[in-house]
Specification:
The complex is a heterodimer of chains A (about 250) and B (about 260). With about 250 residues, chain A is an all-alpha fold. Chain A has 10 helices and no strands. Chain A has a single domain, classed as MetI-like fold (Orthogonal Bundle), CATH 1.10.3720.10. Chain B is globular, with a radius of gyration of 18 Å. Chain B has a 6-stranded mixed beta sheet, with helices on both faces. A 3-stranded antiparallel beta sheet of chain B has the order 2-1-4, with helices on one face. Chain B contains 9 helices and 9 strands. Helix content of chain B is about 35%, strand content about 20%. Chain B has 2 domains: about 160 residues, P-loop containing nucleotide triphosphate hydrolases (Rossmann fold, 3-Layer(aba) Sandwich), CATH 3.40.50.300; about 60 residues. In chain B, helix 5 packs across helix 6 and helix 6 runs parallel beside helix 7. The chains are: A mainly alpha (about 250), B alpha/beta (about 260). At the A-B interface, helix 6, helix 7 and helix 10 of A face strand 5, helix 4, helix 6 and helix 7 of B.
Chain lengths: ~250, ~260
Amino acid sequence: MKWLRLPIVLVGLAVLWAVVAALAELPPYILPGPLRVARAIGAHWERLLGHAGITVLEMLLGLVLGAALGCISALALAYFRPARQWLLPVLVASQAVPVFALAPILVLWFGYGIGSKIAMAALIIFFPVTTAFFDGLRRTEPGWLDLAHTMGAKRWRVLWHLRAPAALPALASGLRVAAAVAPIGAVVGEWVGSSAGLGYLMLQANGRMQIDLMFAALLTLAVIGVALYFAVDASLRRALPWVADTTVPAKQGD
Amino acid sequence: MNLNHAAIGRGAPPGIDLSSARLSYAGRDLFADLSVSFAPGQWTCLLGPSGVGKSTLLRLIAGLETPLPPGRVAASDGAPLSGRIAYMAQQDLLLPWLSALGNVGLGARLRGAAVDGAASRRLLERVGLGARFADRPATLSGGMRQRVALARTLAEDRPVVLMDEPFSALDAVTRLRLQDLAVEMLRGRTIVLVTHDPLEAVRLGQRVLVMAGRPARLIEATLPRSAIPRRADDADVLEAEARLFRTLLASDAEALDPP
């Protein structure tokens, strides 16, 4: 039953979509029905696949870059007091600038290619990863730190062997958010200026009134977004097998 | 007393002298001008009700709290105490991402020393977990986890071991077994054990101090002459336990009825 849930939901949504499109009597250039979009996918699948490949590449590279920068800055914030005092306010203030407003600047700096899209995705991903990981690094179980103190532990070893692994579940939540927002960064970057990618394809299709193709691209993007999220979620679960275990209260007795 | 010094390999364990210790909480003194000496190579139990400040006293000795002046913590042999203390808390404090073996070797890893895997494995065998060394803490029972914590404490090989209610989360039978094991494994070290269980204090204490009142003072308890771990069903032990209960109840009434 469990594995049937997703297909049922998808079919249900498609039926709902078809009914709304039929009942509202909207012309196909406003809301094409699911069959029309399916036909568009069939007709243009090679193009869709090519552009999707570009967008996926942008998302993945943005995810890796943003997550890496986020981890590094969280560790720096946790380890160096000056970093906390000077960098943290800057980080928070930087979030006051709407990232979308930066897209034209990024395109100007990094060009029309995938560079500016990766930068855009990385920029969006960076902040949730930094805050989630830093939060985790700050919340180490005090008893563990006491234990480490009596063991005569070195400070950076406590960070590396104790605080960082203990913060991995928090980092995982940050990475899940990152996976969910990565498509936003890539597509917004493509909208502002590009020559490839699903965002570019959508703009092109829109300009030529190929609304069914536009919806096909949108659908592809949604599938990619969901797939990325579940792939990240599944690999995080696999990488941190002890996390689920610790939510169960410790057994007592021998 | 038969102290097995060779087993520790660090010479005679030091005693601990605590002088003029003071602790205030919310503007009131939990204890003030408290001085006590813990004899070398002996089990001393600190018994008292919750909130009397016994855990803080232990943390002072462990160097986890800085004593307020003029309080002082020193080893009886004059050498610094730091680096000679192992600490065991009520929670096992095992790291959930490490195996039992990894947890036993944690101290070495945190100091940047080489982890002696074979020695860690031998310690786990001695606490009866030879077959479980690859298991994560979440798959072990509470008693097993505390055994791993004991092995980790032993791996530190320190002459002074401070224990803060290490067996209080265990069921009665498991607790008795672990108390016996701890006495056997920690022979020849200076032990300070904080507990709120009078039976535990009588079973393990070569000296038992009742910490009571506000500000707290220490009352010396009389104990059976037998060697530790004392049998829980001994008449002498049960009698001493009853006496400790009376002391605790009397001090409790005093605390409820401040002069």
